[in-house]
């Protein structure tokens, strides 16, 4: 069976089950397949992003948290996903739940982005990188915006993974039929001089200018620990991690390392990062995607910077963030 036929089978099973209202037994009879085969097709349809499910977050019961966060940081909006009511340790202990915060935030972010593209089909969308943004790309079914443009906000020649900037942009472009652009440079240059040379190239200057004027910028948060994506991908060394913490850094976004007030720290890595600046992000409608309680401290810091207009965060982290606000621990 060819790949396109498999895709068509997934789409047909998903339509009959989710939109046609048939149960799995009825769907299998209609398609002449076993129930086990239909079940696998439906699972693959969800996992591939062919099917995306949207839930009205206003009925989940986290409106007070959203309003508290929005008011504290002067945001245009805050959306919290459902809360599991479990600690990060408890979530980590359950393999099926480990990715829940990222999946939840990615799904809601996809709905937000779909709404943006419907209202503004010519939008220029800047994107960062990471596992949460990768999840967002898997939920972009159902919208076409061939006149939209997606552009990476940072150097795209990073780790060969599904969540690097290049792959995020390409996945969004494929899902929507839009154009995709990326910065054909490393995430972090070897030296400050190398950074200046790379930025002077026309192949870099043109997409960077587009990124600097993005209508919407979708960014994620990185925590500065050994468990962070930067360390797992070996993009910074253990020694650099320690030095950044000693310089006051609590997190990063797009490779820019910031302190508890959301301001870039004085560290050589910040002089070598190839990415859109915080000043440019402040001009855009910049939205933070924050998933996982380990990122709460860094999320709070970046929200303090004033560069962000909106926040999409998982419910458990939102509870911690509001507690942090109330207790003035930050």
Describe the structure.
The protein has two domains: 45 residues, Arc Repressor Mutant, subunit A; 273 residues, Rossmann fold (3-Layer(aba) Sandwich). 47% of the residues lie in helices and 15% in strands. It has a seven-stranded parallel beta sheet with strand order 1-10-9-5-2-3-4, with helices on both faces. Helix 1 packs across helix 3, helix 2 crosses helix 3 and helix 6 packs across helix 7. The model has no long low-confidence stretch (mean pLDDT 89).
In terms of DSSP E residues, the strand content is 5-15%
Instruction: Return the string of H and E elements.
Output: HHHHEHHEHEHEHHEEHHEEHEHEH
Major β-sheet profile = 7 strands, parallel
Distance between the termini: 57 Å
The CATH architecture of the largest domain comes to 3-Layer(aba) Sandwich
Topology:
Layout: H1 3-19, H2 24-31, H3 35-48, H4 63-73, E1 77-80, H5 88-93, H6 100-119, E2 124-127, H7 131-137, E3 149-157, H8 165-176, E4 179-186, H9 192-199, H10 202-212, E5 216-220, E6 222-223, H11 229-232, H12 238-246, E7 251-253, E8 256-258, H13 278-283, E9 285-290, H14 296-305, E10 310-313, H15 315-326
Parallel strand pairs: 1-10, 2-3, 2-5, 3-4, 5-9, 9-10
Antiparallel strand pairs: 6-7, 7-8
């Amino acid at each position: 069976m060819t790949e396109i036929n498999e895709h068509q089978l997934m789409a047909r099973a998903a339509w009959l089950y989710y939109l046609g209202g048939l149960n799995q037994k009825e769907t299998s009879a209609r398609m002449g397949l076993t129930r086990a085969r239909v079940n696998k097709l439906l699972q693959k349809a969800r996992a591939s992003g062919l099917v995306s499910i949207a839930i009205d977050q206003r009925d989940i019961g986290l409106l007070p948290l959203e309003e508290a966060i929005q008011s504290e940081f002067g945001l245009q909006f805050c959306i919290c996903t459902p809360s599991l009511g479990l600690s990060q340790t408890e979530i980590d202990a359950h393999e099926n739940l480990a990715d829940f915060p990222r999946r939840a935030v990615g799904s809601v972010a996809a709905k937000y982005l779909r709404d943006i593209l419907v209202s503004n089909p010519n939008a220029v969308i800047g994107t960062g990188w990471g596992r949460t943004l990768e999840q967002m790309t898997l939920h972009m079914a159902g919208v076409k915006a061939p006149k939209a443009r997606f552009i990476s906000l940072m150097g795209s020649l990073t780790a060969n993974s599904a969540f690097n900037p290049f792959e995020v942009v390409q996945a969004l472009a494929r899902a929507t039929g839009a154009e995709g652009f990326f910065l054909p440079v490393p995430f972090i240059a070897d030296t400050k001089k190398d950074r200046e040379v790379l930025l002077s190239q026309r192949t870099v200057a043109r997409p960077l200018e587009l990124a600097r004027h993005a209508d919407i910028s979708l960014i994620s948060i990185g925590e500065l620990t050994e468990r962070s994506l930067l360390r797992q991908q070996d993009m910074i060394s253990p020694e650099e991690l320690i030095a950044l913490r000693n310089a006051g850094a609590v997190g990063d976004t797009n490779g820019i390392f910031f302190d508890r007030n959301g301001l870039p720290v004085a560290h050589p890595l910040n002089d070598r990062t190839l990415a859109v600046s915080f000043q440019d992000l402040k001009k855009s409608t910049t939205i933070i995607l924050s998933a996982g309680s380990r990122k709460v401290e860094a999320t709070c810091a970046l929200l303090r910077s004033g560069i962000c207009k909106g926040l999409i965060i998982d419910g458990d982290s939102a509870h911690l963030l509001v507690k942090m606000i109330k207790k003035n621990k930050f």
